[in-house]
Amino acid sequence: MDIRTLCLGLLTFGEATGYEIKKAFQDRMSMVYDASFSSIYPSLNRLTKEGLVSCRAESQSRRPDRKVYSITPAGREEFLKEIHNAPAADKFRSDFLATLMFSHLLQPGNVSRLIDNQIMDYRQKKDELSQGCGMKQSQSEQFLCGFGVTMYQAAIEYLEQNRHLIEAPAPVRAPAKQSVK
Amino acid sequence: MDIRTLCLGLLTFGEATGYEIKKAFQDRMSMVYDASFSSIYPSLNRLTKEGLVSCRAESQSRRPDRKVYSITPAGREEFLKEIHNAPAADKFRSDFLATLMFSHLLQPGNVSRLIDNQIMDYRQKKDELSQGCGMKQSQSEQFLCGFGVTMYQAAIEYLEQNRHLIEAPAPVRAPAKQSVK
DNA sequence: CGGAACATGTAATACGTTACATGATTAA
DNA sequence: TTAATCATGTAACGTATTACATGTTCCG
């Protein structure tokens, strides 16, 4: 789902400015998506051109016009259609895990440090998410939040329980010439 | 980590053609990264220009030259440097979860179907990964594989145990006018 | 006085994908 | 005979990011 569609979706919760949508991304979607102003503002302009949102400009003194966007019936319909499509598969990218694929090139101490840091990272993100969870109003938000917390917890436990596998590599008896295949 | 760097990394396991690197991506890295020929071939050409890999062409009859790439000392050094950098944070994108954020726009039956499908999906991916796990030779590969299996399992359990939260939304007493904020 | 929050936008750039182009060999 | 595997590449396109551009207001 692209930023444009997600902006449209966020507007189903009520009208908002680009600035507020950015905050909504951070507050409610940061677990699964994020967006910068440079993708939000053009998206909003495009949605307006397409007639999927309408825009009311409030002029402010010494500041850019505050542009308040609302979803139109056409926009609502479009978004409804979108969320009835089968969702694309989850995508997970991890430089941490990718690096561990090459742990044969690192010294044991470095592998340990890498894992330590990653655990601390996961812990912190989990805590941040947990804290936010309580403040969420809707069930969906709490559900998502809980999902994130669960995932982080599982990752932490896996790392703690299995790190020895790559920290103390079992000596290979007959080190065959390796190949990519 | 970009495809170019990952190609360089895969070549630390031994020489390979672009075609074989594509397979390596699928076999060993699919959990955390994937790449198409259209990003691999240009990467390899660029790495060659940069002197980080060398290329030996084997001419074949009625088929494009088989180009076998090897990492050079400079390439090895470059990659070493790369994996000693602090890894970028994990990225997780989920259209499924994003869709659930908008479950207030879906009928209960659709929410249930969505979750059912997602669980089946996760189960299948977990099984595929589990199967592959046994065949992996190196500890790092088994470690990564195990990580993936653990994550899928955690996701499945969370969905099964918490789906009722969004399948049967508790009736709101005084439905306040919602807002994005 | 400094930094966060408010407020919107463009330009240049990076990174990757799908579609296009071409074709032989081998196993089911 | 049909699909998979082998084998390499370019062109067009999409999508998002970082850097640039420009301020005011409010809180500590």
TrEMBL record, chains A, B:
<dbReference type="InterPro" id="IPR005149">
    <property type="entry name" value="Tscrpt_reg_PadR_N"/>
</dbReference>
<feature type="domain" description="Transcription regulator PadR N-terminal">
    <location>
        <begin position="8"/>
        <end position="79"/>
    </location>
</feature>
<dbReference type="Pfam" id="PF03551">
    <property type="entry name" value="PadR"/>
</dbReference>
<protein>
    <submittedName>
        <fullName>PadR family transcriptional regulator</fullName>
    </submittedName>
</protein>
<dbReference type="InterPro" id="IPR036388">
    <property type="entry name" value="WH-like_DNA-bd_sf"/>
</dbReference>
<dbReference type="InterPro" id="IPR036390">
    <property type="entry name" value="WH_DNA-bd_sf"/>
</dbReference>
